Amino acid sequence: MSAIASDRPPGPGVPRSPAELTPEACTALVADRHPGVRITSVGVTEVSEVTNRHVRISWSAEPPGRIPGTAFAKLAPSDPVRAAQIAATGMGAREVRFYRDLAPTLHLRVPEVYGAADDPSDGAFVVLMEDLVASGCRVPDGTVGFGPDAVAGALEGLAELHARFAPAAARASVADWIRPNRDPGTYGAVRLQEALDRHRGRISDDFATIAGWYVADPLALQQVWHGGPVTVVHGDAHLGNCFTDGDRIGFLDWGIVQQAPAMRDVSYLLTMAMDPGVRRLHEADLLRHYLAARAAAGDDAGSFDDAWTAHRLQSAYTVVACCQIVTFPEGISDARRIFSEAFLARAEAAIADLEAVAALRSIGFA
C-alpha cells in the first residue's frame, strides 16, 4: 500500500491552480500508480467551482496507451477564505487518503484515480481521477433520481463496506484518519437561521420546525444522528455525489468519510437519490434488501423495525444538508438552481412522508 498523503512533505509539489497542472507536476502525481509514465503535455479544457474546483484536462503521455487521454482534477477552491474553511475540515486530505489507501480495497464503484496528494501546511490538495464522461458514465443533473434496481445494487456495495468496518478492531485500523464527525460547527445553524429569518415562506412547516430545533441545539440533533453502533460510511451519499456506470451506481466525493451509524448512508441514499414517488413505493423493500445484504456479509444489522425508526430519524438530517440551498443565493447558474430545487423537494418530501417531526418528538424534541 502506498504512503499516505499526510506523509508527504509540504511544498510546491501540490498544484494550487489549473495553471500549476503542468506536465512535470502531473508526472510526479501519477508516478506511484503509473511508474515510468511521463506526461508530455497538459491542456485545461474546462474549469468549474461549487464547493471545490473541478478541472477537466486533456493530456499526452509517454509511453502512449498507459493512461486515458483525458482526466478530471479536483483542487481546493480558488477563494482563500473558502479554501481555508475547507482545509479546516480536513476534507481534502481525507479524500486523498481514501483514494490512495482505501478505495483500491473496496468493491464499490468509485472513480479510478491516477494520482493524489495534499499539503498539510495549508490544506492544498489535488486528486487526478477518471474522466467519467469520457468513460461512458453518466453524472446526474439532479432532476431524475435512481430506480429501485440500481439503488438495490448500491445498497449491496454499501452493506459490504459497513459490515467490514462494523467490528471495533477494523475501525481501529483507520481511526487515525476516519473519525466520528459529531461536532456540528456553526455553519449549518447560521444558514438555517438565515432561512428562517428571510425565507420562511419558501420552506415547509416540518422543515422549519426541524431547522428551529437544530439552530437551538445542533449538538442534540447530531447526537441523535450519530447514536448507536457505528461503522465507516460515505457520509454524503446523495444524488449529486453519485454517478452511473451502466446499471451500476458509483460514489464520488469521499471528503467526509467518517465513523457513523450505517443508516446515515442508507437513509440518505433512499431519500436524496430517489424521486419521492419511487422512494415511497420501494423504500421499505430496499431497507429489507440492505439488511439481508448485511447478513450475507456476515454482520447482523438488527431488525427492520429498528432500522425503519432510524430511517425516520435520519431523514431529518436532510434539513441540515439543505442549509445552503434554503438561503436561496442569488446569481447561481440555471443548472445549480435546478439541482437545488430538486434537492430541497426531495428533503421536504422525505421529512413529511417519514413523519420526521413526530419521530423526533417521540424521543424528546418538542
Strand content: 15-25%
Assembly annotation: single chain
Q: How many structural domains are formed by the residues?
A: 2
Distance between the termini: 50 Å
Structural class: alpha+beta
Q: Detail the poorly predicted runs.
A: 1-12
Briefly note the CATH topology name of the largest domain: Aminoglycoside 3'-phosphotransferase, Chain: A, domain 2
Task: Work out the radius of gyration.
Answer: 21 Å
Work out the helicity level.
40-55%
**Overall pLDDT metric:** 93
Strand order within the widest sheet? 1-2-3-5-4
Major sheet characteristics: 5 strands, antiparallel
User: Which H/E pattern describes the elements?
Assistant: HEEEHHEEHHHHHEEEEHHHHHH
Descriptive keywords:
single chain; 366 residues; alpha+beta; Aminoglycoside 3'-phosphotransferase, Chain: A, domain 2; 5-stranded antiparallel beta sheet; two-stranded antiparallel ribbon; 14 helices; 9 strands; disordered N terminus
Task: Please characterize this protein's 3D structure.
With 366 residues, this protein is an alpha+beta fold. Helices cover 43% and strands 15% of the residues. Helix 7 (205-216) crosses helix 8 (218-225) and helix 9 (263-272) packs across helix 11 (304-315). The chain is globular, with a radius of gyration of 21 Å. The model is unreliable at 1-12 (pLDDT under 50).
Brief description of this entry?
This protein has helices at residues 23-30, 80-89, 91-102, 148-164, 168-172, 187-198, 205-216, 218-225, 263-272, 276-296, 304-315, 317-321, 334-353, 356-361, and strands at 38-49, 53-62, 70-75, 113-119, 124-129, 231-233, 242-245, 248-251, 258-260.
